[in-house]
């Protein structure tokens, strides 16, 4: 299912129809009452043919760190299908992005067990409204257990940073394992929020200080690692890769900036739909630009150079992407003289961070003990 306005977007609308997407008109986007009979008929037809339907039951795509209220449409569809003897088990799926606003952010897709609905089918025959409400509540509960959420973005950042510090000795840095620990933090914070307000406020202040010190440490020196090559090698690698990456940036500059400009100046622009529009326009702008660039190369240098460009443009784009990220993270290294001059300051900040780490972990242990008392 996808909101109806998306089908009016050139290229995207055609792609979605080819993929078998079903348009749905949301009440707040319509003038007056909405007749959903044609919509439900399309859904029933798909289920009857053996297809599955992916539904976003909140009914909206919003940049927020917690679930919205689940709509009743999915439950109503389930019961309508059951009336026609179509088996359509409901499988709750939680989407957990590490940082949803960042391109190529890691994501864990948590697939729960199908919901138990046999008792509700009997209830539906007696009271349609109650059965729909109960099934919607079950979906909501199952989804809440499958996603990490918080009341606001500050709380979310707070828990992300807290988990990173408290579990800094963990071998694995996978988002899946971090997410499982984050769910524990979420449950603990919700339980202690009222009784330990002072301690949690103090913990926030300590984390803020820790974050400031960490940022200062990054600016002071290149993070030391056992297996890192000398900074001279880093500098040479950067020197060799920079001209190649510069070509990649130059070739992709026009479609990249055009896409950004078109999306941000669109009348329908908002944070929730920006990513969708960028993907759509990128599918058109990048290939068209590369084709034009290949034709220009052919006009001036012949077929050989043009074919070489077509073969290399995709690997060049990936190289540029990863190289610029590496460069941004400090991949070029730091000159030896600067390392020596900053050594004292670096060591001092490192010591303060270690002390702050210890205080944070002590406070978390105290809160954990308090949590155990409350839940036991």
Features:
mainly alpha; 376 residues; 3 domains; two-stranded parallel ribbon; 4 strands; two-stranded antiparallel sheet; single chain
Write structural notes for this entry.
This protein has three domains: about 35-145, no CATH class; about 155-220 and about 370-375; about 230-335, no CATH class. About 65% of the residues lie in helices and about 5% in strands. The protein has twelve helices and four strands. The protein has helices spanning about 10-20, 35-50, 75-85, 120-125, 130-145, 155-165, 175-190, 195-220, 230-265, 270-300, 305-330, 335-375; strands at about 1-5, 25, 95, 105-110. The strands form two sheets. The chain has a two-stranded parallel ribbon. Helix 1 (about 10-20) links the parallel strand 1 and strand 2 (about 25). Helix 6 crosses helix 7 (about 175-190).
Give the helices and strands as they follow along the chain: EHEHHEEHHHHHHHHH
Provide the domain count: 3
Number of strands: 4
Q: If strands are numbered along the chain, what order do they take across the biggest sheet?
A: 1-2
> What is the average per-residue confidence, as pLDDT, rounded to a whole number?
82
SSE class: mainly alpha
The coarse silhouette is flat
- Main beta sheet strand tally, sense and closure: 2 strands, parallel
Strand-residue proportion: under 5%
Helix content: 55-70%
Low-confidence runs (pLDDT<50, min 5 residues)? 222-230
Distance between the termini: 44 Å
Count of alpha/pi helices = 12
C-alpha Rg, in Å? 27 Å
